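batch_manifest entry 22 of 60
target: Crossover junction endodeoxyribonuclease Hjc
source organism: Halosimplex carlsbadense 2-9-1
requested by: lab member K.T.
priority: normal
notes from requester: please return tokens only, no post-processing; we will run our own comparison against the previous entry in this batch. if the run fails, retry once and flag.
--- input ---
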Amino acid sequence: MANSNAKGDRRERELVNELDAAGFAVMRAPASGSATERELPDVLAGDGEDFYAVEAKSSAGDPIYLDGEEVEALLFFSRNFGAKPRIGVRFDREDWYFFHPGDEAVHVTDGGNYRVKKETALAHGVDFDELVGHSEKVTLDEVADDGPDQGTLDVLSAFERGDLSKEEAAEML
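--- output ---
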């Protein structure tokens, strides 16, 4: 069991270092139950615009489970602290993915616990770059491909007719 905790601690430190490198002020909270009677989130991070309280979980297996009380404590802390609550999951040989506890992708079991499957994390999770504002997820449905505009078609037609050289056409496009 100590090995499992050591791996979890290492993953939390990895997340802290990645957030720090992305320009966030970040700290890892003390071990569960040692600072207060109420559970604390694993990681607190902010960049002056966005503030996150993260419950971080990692696993070699699938799925990742979170105790319902952990998630309730995360929501309580986040609301009182003014942070956005996030569940951060990392499966072996994958990156970090983040969810709000209320996201549809986070399944609540009959026992009141929370579950995130690997396939759900990869398909619906917010990746690290999106979390820190370095990218934005765009789906294929959101990208309308109406084909080239009229100006592009005119340049291509001129090239086909021989009115423009390849270099001239490329420069205009």
